[in-house]
């Protein structure tokens, strides 16, 4: 979540306690969006920005987590063995 | 570049190459084959690597070129498999009870390969748009639009599912009740 010290980004959010207003605004937007979805069965109708931003952030996190899961796994020995073999062949040239 | 330096660079790049390969092809076994092939090709063509340039990006380029040329070679089978898969997912969207790792992997497979590649490079592998463009052999603007399209498409695929996490209402409740909670394991 955004830090409470951050200044509000957009002009319309500069009311006092702007951050809280913004958070509530997002929650309200999501609620509205859920209602719109329920009524219309669409995922892109109405005030969807809050939901979309949240969804995109989640997708970003999951993508990174999926990638890192493999990237942080130990490298199988077969690769190091292959490298040593290739390296030997290369320097033997 | 000494072969010792090359070797050190390769060892450092292997984890990221594996992760990139898995994200591209969705299968660890095939990914490791790709990485192995990449290493063989890289050693064979080490003269064409310009010293002082980005070794990781160079290896990523070899890997994705290998993947895409294999894919072209097997195009018909791949397309058939994708088609059947896409159809299965399309008629059973309610099977997605919640958004988890398996679901993201499933959703990734529904993207066009070039869009999936751009998304992974930029959003998962931490490449800049410029690096991603260099690796994929296309313009920076092309990468940006591929990433945007991939994000939009993933959002569409996963949107309904994730929305239900924000508090089920009658409609999503009904969907969840019918959910089989199906998940796939690798």
Give the ordered list of helices and strands of chain B.
HHHHHHHHH
Radius of gyration of chain B: 19 Å
Largest interface (CB < 8 Å): A-B, 40 and 47 residues
Approximate strand percentage of chain B: under 5%
Structural class of chain A: mainly alpha
Largest sheet data of chain A: none
Query: What does the radius of gyration of chain A come to?
Result: 24 Å
Low-confidence stretches of chain A: 6-18, 34-47
Question: What form of chain B results from the Cα inertia axes?
Answer: globular
Count of helical segments of chain B?
9
Shape, per Cα inertia axes of chain A: rod-shaped
| Count of alpha/pi helices of chain A | 3
What is the helix/strand order of chain A? HHH
Number of strands of chain B: 0
Helix content of chain B: over 70%
Oligomer type: heterodimer
Mean pLDDT of chain A: 65
Strand proportion of chain A, as a percent range, falls in under 5%
Structure explained in plain terms:
- The complex is a heterodimer of chains A (93) and B (186).
- With 93 residues, chain A is mainly alpha-helical.
- Chain A has three helices and no strands.
- Chain A has helices spanning 18-40, 49-71, 77-91.
- The longest helix of chain A has 23 residues, at 18-40.
- Chain A is rod-shaped and about 55 Å long.
- In chain A, 16% of the residues are buried.
- Chain B is mainly α and 186 residues long.
- Chain B contains nine helices and no strands.
- Chain B has helices spanning 3-25, 28-44, 55-73, 75-91, 101-109, 113-124, 129-136, 140-163, 170-178.
- In chain B, helix 2 (28-44) packs across helix 3.
- The longest helix of chain B has 24 residues, at 140-163.
- The relative contact order of chain B is 0.11.
- Residues 89-99, 164-168 and 179-186 of chain B have low confidence and may be disordered.
- The chains are: A mainly alpha (93), B mainly alpha (186).
């Amino acid at each position: 979540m955004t830090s409470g010290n951050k200044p509000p980004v957009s002009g319309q959010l500069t009311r006092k306690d702007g951050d809280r207003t913004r958070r509530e605004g997002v929650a309200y937007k999501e609620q509205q969006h859920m209602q719109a979805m329920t009524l219309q069965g669409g995922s892109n109708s109405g005030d969807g920005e809050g939901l979309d931003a949240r969804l995109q952030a989640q997708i970003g996190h999951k993508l990174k987590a999926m990638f890192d899961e493999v990237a942080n796994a130990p490298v199988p020995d077969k690769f190091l063995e292959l490298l040593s073999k290739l390296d030997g062949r290369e320097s033997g040239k | 570049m000494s072969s010792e330096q090359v070797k050190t660079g390769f060892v450092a790049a292997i984890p990221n190459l594996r992760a990139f390969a898995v994200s591209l092809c969705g299968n660890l076994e095939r990914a490791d084959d790709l990485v192995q092939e990449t290493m063989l090709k890289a050693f064979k063509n080490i003269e064409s690597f310009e010293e002082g340039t980005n070794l990781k990006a160079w290896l990523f380029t070899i890997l994705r070129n290998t993947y895409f040329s294999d894919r072209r070679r097997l195009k018909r089978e791949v397309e058939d498999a994708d088609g059947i898969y896409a159809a299965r997912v399309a008629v059973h969207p309610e099977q997605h009870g919640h958004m988890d790792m398996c679901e993201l992997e499933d959703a990734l497979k529904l993207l066009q390969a070039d869009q999936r590649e751009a998304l992974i490079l930029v959003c998962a592998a931490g490449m800049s748009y410029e690096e991603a463009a260099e690796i994929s052999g296309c313009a920076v603007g092309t990468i940006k639009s591929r990433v945007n399209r991939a994000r939009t498409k993933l959002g569409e695929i996963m949107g309904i599912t994730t929305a239900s996490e924000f508090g089920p209402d009658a409609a999503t409740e009904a969907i969840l009740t019918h959910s089989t909670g199906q998940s796939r394991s690798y």
